[in-house]
Amino acid sequence: MQFGIFSVSDITTDPTTGRTPTEAQRIKDIVTIAQHAEQAGLDVFALGEHHNEPFFSSSPTTTLAYIAARTSTLQLSTATTLITTNDPVKIAEDFAMLQHLADGRVDLMLGRGNTGPVYPWFGKDIRAGIPLALENYGLLHKLWREHVVDWEGKFRTPLQSFTSTPRPLDDVPPFVWHGSIRSPQIAEQAAYYGDGFFANHIFWPASHTQRMVGLYRQRFEHYGHGSADQAIVGLGGQVFMRKNSQDAVTEFRPYFDNAPVYGHGPSLEDFTRETPLTVGSPQQVIDRTLGFREYVGDYQRQLWLMDHAGLPLKTVLEQLDILGEQVVPVLRKEFAALKPAHVPDAPTHAALLAAKLEKDSKAEVQA
Amino acid sequence: MKQRNLVVVSSGLSQPSSTRLLADQLSTAAAGAAARRGVTLDIQVVELRDLAHDIIDNMLTGFAKPALKQAQDAVAAADALIMVTPVFSAGYSGLFKSFVDVLEKDTLAGKPVLLAATAGTARHSLVLEHAMRPLFAYLRTAIIPTSVFAASDDWGANSVEGPLRGRIERAATELATEVERREPATVIDPFALTESFEDMIKNL
Q: Which end of chain A, N or C, is more open, meaning fewer C-beta atoms within 10 Å of its C-beta?
């Protein structure tokens, strides 16, 4: 099982000091955070994409390429890459390029984006969000698998004899996760292609996630990619930890109360009860996280939201250390002990390449 | 006897409230009228005052806490509704509208709805016509022709058999007639897959 963090790249005023980091500072900090995640023993760093303030991450592959050069084992991903407003041709090119530079340590998570005003800035309409996601991914999927592509669709100019370059590393396309909160069509899309499904999880009651993952698993099996429990599932999570749980609550409360997404709304206690948010001791985080498995089954990737809501860099790095030293080693052991042998790990480039070589050699023998 | 679900939404704030009083009289009358048509009404009352914080939280977070979720589910499964609001500043109360705002899209479509309102004076009685009716028309509900307005005068000492009683009975009878002639409500599951991948691609 993979453990990591994801960032939405918000630039938020620290409510306890009134300090707002500059874009320059926040951008450098995110590189530090990613490097620190690797040093702390985490597996994955995923970065969001936004085209509006107060977010900085409009160009994730640029940032991830820089991080790739400064890390050696960290798997680089996104949370999410906008499949609606980006040109799928550019996604195909950018991520294949990143894949080469990062020696295959790349996958990506596709999302639609729910910020209405962003769509028209890219010539799109939010009301066509699902059709855009379906058509654009269909093209992206093709561009990574067929050398010369002829294509015509509804939302983009046609392509004649087009080859997306560079080709994916070793002819193995980056693994794709489809992220969605509550659109069954996206679970269906992930299942159809046999891709991964990532449930945002963090802003919603567990029942949402359970329904969506359940649907994805059932349809994954329907499309013949394996049994339902072999489908590839990722979950978001949100934690804040201190040795004594009351200290965690006291320290995190002002960040919670003023957070851009849910601030000035429900109490920290309410939100903790209703969503996966866990504020407390490392042991509480271990227990809560193990509990996710009870309603989504054995899953492959757990990402936590760590740097957000104005938390200072020093605090974020301390949180990564607690994860790396006290939480993840226990979770690795516990999850591994519970997982049946036929349930696969999250796909890596090496694993996908090995599977491809095996398939190719079988085809040769048959020929 | 046929069995159907009636959900009564009351958004009065005081305890006891005349809005709840009107809601109870309407639901009692509806149960009686339905029984005469061979229909047993299971009545559930949703007091919005108890859900006020949950409703605002739902607006901010996008999901309902358990008590509000239960109320939303009851409304979605209702065969008929009685919606009663006090008049605040010449319209339905903000809490009443906020509850409507956190219902899933199309939750109320096609459902028979009896509209009612209370106020201190009869001068507000057209709130039913200029505020409530357009709202529930937009929501594509089957609005019961008679809506019921009660002012402080209607609760006066000598009005037990007064004109309010007559309107309540007429509206309740109309509601019961609608419920009796309809099939039970079906609930839309927002997580259900309605078309396969191939069909989605075909219908882009």
A: C
**Overall domain count for chain B:** 1
Domain of residue B62, residue span:
2-202
Question: Inter-chain contact B63–A274, Cβ cutoff 8 Å?
Answer: yes
A187: chain B residues, CB-CB within 8 Å: 193
CA atoms within 13 A on the CB side of A204: 16
- Tell me the whole-structure pTM to 2 decimals: 0.93
Residue with tokens 């757990």: A302
Rounded Cα distance between B57 and A266, Å, is 6
Give A155-172 pLDDT, tens digit per residue.
999 999 999 999 999 999
CA distance A348 to B49: 53
Give me A164's structure tokens: 């997306």
**Cis peptide bond N-terminal to A131, omega within 30:** no
Judge if ipTM > 0.95.
no
Alpha helices in A199-281 (DSSP H): 206-222, 245-257, 268-274
CA dist., res. B121 & res. A19, Å (int): 53
Smallest Cα distance from B65 to chain A, Å: 7
- Which CATH number covers residue B136? 3.40.50.360
Tell whether the model's pLDDT for residue B191 goes beyond 90. Answer: no
Q: Which chain B residues are within 8 Å of A114, Cβ to Cβ?
A: none
